[in-house]
Amino acid sequence: MTGQGFVLPNDLFSNDLLSQDLLLLARRRALVTSGVALSAAAIALLGGRDALAASAQTNAAEIEADVRILNTALGAEHEAVAAYQVGAESGLLAKDVLGVAVAFQGHHKEHAAAIAATVQKLGGKAVAAKAKYTFPVDKLKTQADVLRFAAGLEKGAVSAYLGAVPLFADRALAQVAASILGDEAMHWAVLRHVLGEDPVPAAFMA
Known about the structure:
It is a single chain. This protein is an all-alpha fold. The chain is built from seven helices and no strands. Helix 4 runs antiparallel to helix 5, helix 4 runs antiparallel to helix 6 and helix 6 runs antiparallel to helix 7. About 35% of the residues are buried.
């Protein structure tokens, strides 16, 4: 996919909070923390242990409904991957910031792969990425433009997962969605911080 990308000045990553080492460390800690909270059924669904996962849900109608929700989330993850590609190819991002953007894109790829595998294990057909997405590329003139665009997508993802969590019939899947929601929220906070905005503007997400 081609398009405009986003570039950030090198000095934006001069403080410890935004250093790549700390970002990677935070990512590892988040994965460990969320892993502890996930149920055995959720881990089984994302890890390929079909026999264990099968015990988590038996109602066909509920499975079908959960697959629809998962595919909606999968579509959004595909869109996020494409959006970050546009940013990465724009030439607007500084080297350090580009590295973080690519890392965030990698997270979305991991989300998409896990969700697609789960849909298939539940007997559904995972939605594919679109051949082309319509992004406001003509409006991405500066680094800040690109970061606000990315931040808007991440905030939308947070809201989408927040709405999806209570809808899952299989509570193990709800836990997985909540784990992904936390990752999207961290992306949003980091992007807001780079933009010079309050990374956590409210006590509650909506």
